[in-house]
Fold these 3 entries.
Entry 1:
Amino acid sequence: MPNPTQVGIKDGRLRKWLLSIAVFLRNQNQGLLQALALWKANLAQEFAGVEPCLVCMCVISTVNGQLPRLSCRHCHVSFHPACLYKWFRSSGKSNCVHCQNPW
């Protein structure tokens, strides 16, 4: 029997949304209302068809509120600039997060 509180949302998508609200709450210094407003805007962009960044799993960056705008020239997946640079620094290489081709 399906969970009535999920209203047809798949478990993986629900977990991703719950993780994103935790990220917004952790990264917002302004408070709960601002984090919830950012989370709501993030969900609205996702329903509008904007693909989330594969590094932070959010459509709207928690760092600066931007949409993913840097695209890999091989797989065309988009990332937030701050997330991509963080990925490059932590991995020690400049390969795409998704396809692993050189950036």
Entry 2:
Amino acid sequence: MIRNIFLFLDRTYVFQISMLSSIWDMGLELFKSYIIRDQNVQSRTIDGILLLIEKERNGEMIDRCLIQRLLSMLSDLQIYQVSFENKFLEETNRFYAAEGRKLVQKKEIPGCLYHIKNLLEEEVDRVRAYLSLNTQKLLIAIVEKQLLGEHLSAVLQKGLSYLLDENRVEDLSVLYQLFSRVEFGVQVLLQHWIDYIKCVSKQKQGKWKAEGEALYRAGSTCAT
């Protein structure tokens, strides 16, 4: 009811006076000045949003609609980037730095790859659900760096040889797709692949040499 009255005033009285801001714009500015710019209120709001996002990343169910409305409010007030996004990206960097270390220590390479793939998909879904689309590029870059970029060789050492020995084509495809997303990922993968080929070739040569020598000795024995 009250909103309809103000909308009517915006279309009639305010519209006729060019120097006046709309009641909606004036209300946003007053709300920003007297409520959101209060450091205590702003800190509690942002910290609360970040806490909910961290809970969701840890597998808990949260009220996504609530976060979407709060972040939409910050966007309308034109303080989304300054008050929320910068701190959100810092927390994302911290969270996934720890997650990356845990992954490398605990998971074997197939599980590690699919877990990283799922985490990246979850972050894209998070953008669609309540974050600004402008946040996506920076967010995904941080996740890729902390889960992959910082651990390229460690991930490969955990099982590239196994994937190649067992001809795990699907897993190797996921590995290549993930590594191609980060700087120097393909180069590091290529170097490990070359090292694998050299190692296998050396083992094969040793085996063939041993077999040849065995055949030679067997032939010499028969001849005598």
Entry 3:
Amino acid sequence: MLFSPRLLGCSRTCSRVLGLSLGTAALFAAGANTALLFPNWDVTYLLRGLVGRHALLGSGLWGGGLMVFMAATLISMMGWRGCCFGKSAPCCSILAALLASGLALLGALICFVTSGVALRDGPLCMSDVSSFNQTQAWKYSYPFKDLQHINYLYDRSLWSSVCLEPSKAVVWHVSFFSVLLCVSALQLLLVAVHSINSLLGLFCSLCEE
């Protein structure tokens, strides 16, 4: 029983670090999704409704951003023993830990899945949609979504030849959705660590009694 106060303090310190890390990751996710709404930092695409549906879904804003940030705040409060998260209420602490983990897990998972689908489908851009022997016709679509046996992510020659507008549309799309994918994967990892840390903290709280 002598080791439980030390482990409990370590668990609280871990909660503070995890809360700060998740909060920072949430800000990165929100920033990346915001950039996707303004291709080449040009607001006219958003005003004209020419921003891809994956970016408009805003999973990095409300999922990997707001939901994870709320969970990070709760986790930090637990680390600093705010509200009812003291040693006198271990059941309250574990319920708060489960709530924070569930909230962050859901937000990060939504952001991760959306980013993966967005990378698979490719960006919304102006491309040639004319069929064989027809006059060249350009319109906004997802030209990489219907490519057969070709993965545009590995063939960079397609990036500039298929999309006419916005300029560097593929680079913008791939760069920021890759950031979202990596950030949300990191968030999922931090949530897993937090779950283990919460169980350890509950065990130590019970040992103190």
